Amino acid sequence: MEKEKVVVLTGAGISAESGIKTFRDADGLWEGHDIMEVASPTGFEKNPALVLDFYNQRRRQLKEVVPNEGHKALVLLEEQYDVTIVTQNVDNLHERAGSSKIIHLHGELSKMRGVQYPYKIYDCSGDIYVGDVCKRGSQLRPHIVWFGEDVPMIETAIAECTQAAILMIIGTSMQVYPAASLINFVPQSTPIYFIDPKPSVNESAYQNLTVIAEKASTGVAKVIEELVGF
Ligand code: OAD
């Protein structure tokens, strides 16, 4: 029998307990920076060295953090469901926890590309500096979707959502589009579980919504227990 499809939309909150800071908890600053300074094409044009260094530090941090109970619990779901993770996170903690199908809506720290070649992506494990170029001679930059840029994976994520038998949303403020609009693409009958200690969702707008106002580590475990009986 075919497994039912579970789509899991994750945000920064699922990685918070691994020690990675969320975006909107510190007055809109991301590790001390205005988000537009380090996550926009204009920010990069203005100060490429600062932006590259910022992501170099984020990439280095990946080596110091590990997946937490929230990431790990999602792997257990695969025993009974066809699970697709749609993450806004640029870390690699879902992969390292063992999830098998992951769509990165906002790119990945462990990938890079030439500024002029958005679709030729390379693996990236070290630092990127001003003057480092891709094979075609274009300045390298992290493979991150910055504000104002296209979100190429959104169509794939929408297609997954339209087929979802269950939707889980974990640790996101639902403030960034188009990611936040994915909740509107699941069939009306699809149960939605929203796990976030400070959930920001209009509860009256969704018939089948269950809000679990908890951290990912405990909240995800509760939903998994309900869905698979672990
Ligand atoms: P935000 O920082 O906007 O929201 C983080 C959410 O995580 C909040 O709702 C918190 O309540 C919640 N949270 C905090 N600790 C948690 C925990 N232990 N368990 C579960 N939830 C917890 O982050 P995102 O919604 O992911 O884009 O932000 C979306 C996008 O905006 C990011 O992908 C990023 C940013 O600008 C880019 O960098 C392109």
How would you briefly describe this protein structure?
Helices cover 28% and strands 22% of the residues.
How would you characterize this protein structure?
The chain is α/β, with parallel strands linked by helices and 230 residues long. It has two domains: 140 residues, Rossmann fold (3-Layer(aba) Sandwich), CATH 3.40.50.1220; 78 residues, SIR2/SIRT2 'Small Domain' (2-Layer Sandwich), CATH 3.30.1600.10. Helices cover 28% and strands 22% of the residues. It is built from eight helices and eleven strands. The chain has a six-stranded parallel sheet, sandwiched between helices. A three-stranded antiparallel sheet has the order 7-6-8. A two-stranded antiparallel ribbon has the order 2-3. It is globular and about 55 Å long. Bound molecules: 2'-O-acetyl adenosine-5-diphosphoribose. The site of 2'-O-acetyl adenosine-5-diphosphoribose (OAD) has 26 residues, from helix 1.
